[in-house]
From TrEMBL:
Designated gene of the protein: Mrpl10_1
One cellular-component annotation, GO: ribonucleoprotein complex
Entry keyword annotation includes Ribosomal protein: yes
Name of the protein: Large ribosomal subunit protein uL10m
One Pfam family, short name: Ribosomal_L10
UniProt xrefs under InterPro entries: Ribosomal_uL10, Ribosomal_uL10-like_sf, Ribosomal_uL10_bac_type
Keywords attached to this entry: Ribonucleoprotein, Ribosomal protein
Species per Swiss-Prot/TrEMBL record: Sakesphorus luctuosus
C-alpha cells in the first residue's frame, strides 16, 4: 500500500518508456529501381561494340574439306565376320521383320525354334548390308531396311519355322 501511495496508484505504468526505441527516418533501403541509361553512355557502348571482320572470301566459295576417312572398329569387323559365317555355314537363312514384343514372348519363340534346331540372330543393318553387298546374296539387300532378325539352321527346316511363326504376329517372314 505504501508503494502504491508513493507512485500515485497505477501511474507508474503511464510514465514507463522502453530503453531502446527504433525509429526510421529518411530514405528507404530499397535502391533497386530501374533507371534509364544515360544517352552518352548508350552512344559510347554503341561505338565501342565489337564487330567481327568479314572473311575476304565468303565461306560458300571455299572448297569443302574432305571428311577424315572413317576407320573401321574392331568390334564391327568381328560382327561382320560372324554374319559372313552365318551365311556360309547354314543352308537355311530366313530374313524376318521384327516388331517389338515382350521379352517373355521372344524367349518362348526362341525356345520353340531351337527345338527344331533353328537359331534366332538379331542383326544390325549397318553390319549386314556391307557383307551382303560383297556376297552372292546381293538380292537380299532391299529386305534390310527396318529392324530385322535372321532365322538360321544348318538344315532346311522351312515347314517347322513357318508353323512357329504363324503363332507370332510380330515377326513377319520377308525372304
Amino acid at each position: 500500500a505504501k508503494m502504491a501511495a508513493l507512485s500515485g496508484g497505477t501511474g507508474w505504468r503511464r510514465g514507463w518508456l522502453p530503453a531502446l526505441q527504433l525509429v526510421r527516418r529518411g530514405s528507404k533501403a530499397v535502391t533497386r529501381h530501374w533507371k534509364a541509361m544515360h544517352f552518352q553512355r548508350q552512344k559510347l557502348l554503341a561505338v565501342t561494340e565489337y564487330v567481327p571482320p568479314r572473311p575476304a572470301v565468303p565461306l560458300r566459295c571455299l572448297p569443302r574439306h574432305a571428311d577424315p576417312t572413317h576407320e573401321e572398329d574392331g568390334y564391327v569387323r568381328l560382327l561382320r565376320r560372324q554374319v559372313q559365317e552365318v551365311f556360309q555355314k547354314n543352308r537355311m537363312v530366313a530374313v524376318c521383320q521384327y516388331n517389338s514384343m515382350p521379352n517373355e514372348d521372344v524367349v518362348t519363340m526362341q525356345h520353340y525354334l531351337r527345338k527344331h534346331n533353328i537359331e534366332v540372330k538379331f542383326v544390325l543393318n549397318e553390319i549386314v548390308r556391307p557383307v551382303l553387298a560383297q556376297s552372292k546374296y546381293r538380292n537380299l539387300l532391299p529386305l534390310f531396311v527396318c529392324r530385322n532378325i535372321l532365322l538360321v539352321s544348318p538344315e532346311t527346316r522351312a515347314k517347322e519355322m513357318l508353323r512357329v511363326l504363324k503363332g507370332v504376329p510380330q515377326v513377319n517372314l520377308l525372304g
